[in-house]
Amino acid sequence: MAFEPNPEVRKRLLGNLLINRFLTQVSVIPFGVSSSAGTAEFFVPPKSGTGAGSLRNLHAEEGEPIRFQVELNTIDEIFDTSSRIDVLKMDIEGAEFQAILGGEKLIASQQPVIVIELLRKWMKPFRSHPQDVLLKLNQLGYQCFGISDTHLRQIQKIDELTEETNFLFFPKSRDISTLNKFKII
Q1: How far apart are CA 54 and CA 123, in angstroms?
Q2: Are 33 and 8 in contact (CB under 8 A)?
Q3: Alpha carbon of residue 37 to chain centroid
Q4: How far apart are CA 26 and CA 69, in angstroms?
Q5: pLDDT tens sequence across 124-181
Q6: Would you tell me how many other CB atoms lie within 10 Å of the CB of residue 165?
Q7: Are 28 and 4 contacting, i.e. CB atoms less than 8 angstroms apart?
Q8: What is the DSSP letter of 69?
């Protein structure tokens, strides 16, 4: 399942799924995930474009963004705790902590592997920090690994000295040998 609130990106995603014959394997859901359901203003910067779209105006230096309303929901409202979720992948331009909060019940019960981009500069306008995600997921039984070009590095704290911006959160309850499959990927 892919959650995409931006209609232009959603259209492009559906086109790519069609071209690559994956349209029946992937469901594209027309809203974003956050800590609560509702609507929010979405900002697409004029130069960085759709890939830099966010629920905050993260690229004010580029000039006036395109603005429109998007629908939001929570992971916990979308899935019940009996849903089987193996992997969650998030890159949502600063709102990752809010999405984790909105999926806390599912994450606690299903213990999916979580691959997530956490950038301090994008999270700051959301009044959160990558360390908030690490602490919350530690509470839910996860260990954190920074992803580099060549290896995974276990991380206890994400601070200003942390070079990695992509992380793999692996449930402590799972067999650690499974982690080797992610190292290969």
Answers
A1: 11
A2: no
A3: 16
A4: 24
A5: 999 999 999 999 999 999 999 999 988 889 999 999 999 999 999 999 988 877 777 6
A6: 16
A7: yes
A8: E
